[in-house]
Each structure stands twice: as C-alpha cells, then as structure tokens.
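User: Before I run my own analysis I want an independent prediction to cross-check against. Here's the chain; please return only the structure tokens and, at the end, one sentence I can use as a sanity check.
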Amino acid sequence: MTTPSLPPVYRPIVLGGREDPFAHAQKAAAAGAADGTLVWSRRPDRFDCAVILAPDAPLGSSLRVSYVALLGLGDALGTLAPPVTAVTFGWPDRLEVNGATAGGVRLAAAEADDSGDAVPAWMVVGATVAISNESEDEEPGRDLARTTLRDEGCGEIEAAALLESFGRHFLAWVNRWQEDGFGPVREAWLNRAAARGQPVEFDLAGESLSGTFAGLDEAGGLLLVEAARTRTVPLTPALSAASWSL
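Assistant: Structure tokens:
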C-alpha cells in the first residue's frame, strides 16, 4: 500500500491494525491537536479517516460540514471508480454506490454550553468506505442494502489512493463553502441525493417520519412534504448517531 500525497494543510497520523481513526482523532482534538490533523487507518479492506477541524460558527451551522465531507468523498470516488459507477448520497450521512450503502461520514464536536451560540473548540469529521469484505468467504450481495467497492467493480481502489483523492476534494469543497456560502454545497449535494423527489421513511430520535424528500433548507435540514404540508427535519438530531454501519 502506497503512502498518499496530501496537501500541506493536513498533518497526517497513520494507524495500524484495527484502530479507529474517528475515536483517535477525538482524543487527539480534546488534547489540543491542531486543525488539519488527519488520522487514517492503513488497512486493505476499508478506507477510514478522520479530520480535526476548528469551527468558526456555532454547532448547528458547523454541522453542515457533513455535506461538504460527502461531496469530497463522492468526488474522490468519481475520479477513481469506473465511469459507469453511480455514487449517490442518502440523507444525512450515507454514501451509496450503485444504490447500496458503502459507507458514510460521522461527526463529533467538543461539548459547548446550552445557549446554542457557542462555537465548539473542535470538531472531527470521519469518512469511511468499505473496500472489500473482511472475510473472503462472505458472499457478495448477501445484504442487498450494503455493498463494497470490490462488489461494485471498483476493487482496484486502495485506501491510500482514496485518501489522497478525498484530501484534495474535501479541501476544495471546504474552500468553496467558506467563499461562496452553503448554496453551492446544497445544490451539488442534492444533485447526488438518491431519494430527491421520492417518498422516504426513517426513524429519528424514536419518531417515525415519512414523506417526500423535497430538498434542504439553508441550515441543512431536510424538507419533508407530507399531505401538502412541508416540515423541516433538523440536521442536529439526525447527526447524533450515524445512520449507516459497516
């Protein structure tokens, strides 16, 4: 496995074995690790990384970086996967390849006061993609809702190459967000939203929600239309736990 070449803004930390970069990055951030610290796991079956960020806005606004991370991940795969590969997003945090979940993003932040106006001291965004099954004996397609890059004809993609591409594309989208606001991020994300304009059902904080996925509001909330009424599903509770698992 090659060593990735990353933009100088990143400070890479490489883990071995089955160490979790997301958990490692949170501990490092709490201990004072710098903005741009990037932790990744050198394992052949899974792309797993986490980036420490220094937010400049309250948590509710900063959580929109989940869309930025998914765009970076989608563009990274788009440059490495065969052209026929469909890379789409599921709200709020899932990465889908040819219609099945292949990974997603996770967010964690330093605790702040209850005012809602405090800026977190740090935030960690994690990105994960299943490259192959851990067990070579596991039958491809056994779980139709889950997939790997190998199962979808992208088995030549290595974690280091995906990290290198993600590092560039994520940075480009962060810069776009900072310079042009959330509008371009929202539009690009919606262009890859698998369920846009379609009926959706999901559970959020113990509540069953259903309706037509109509879009995103400026705060990143899901616009859900049901019985000619539009309601907003806030992003904050939706990202309290990952909606995907590998």
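Sanity check: The two ends are 22 Å apart (CA to CA).
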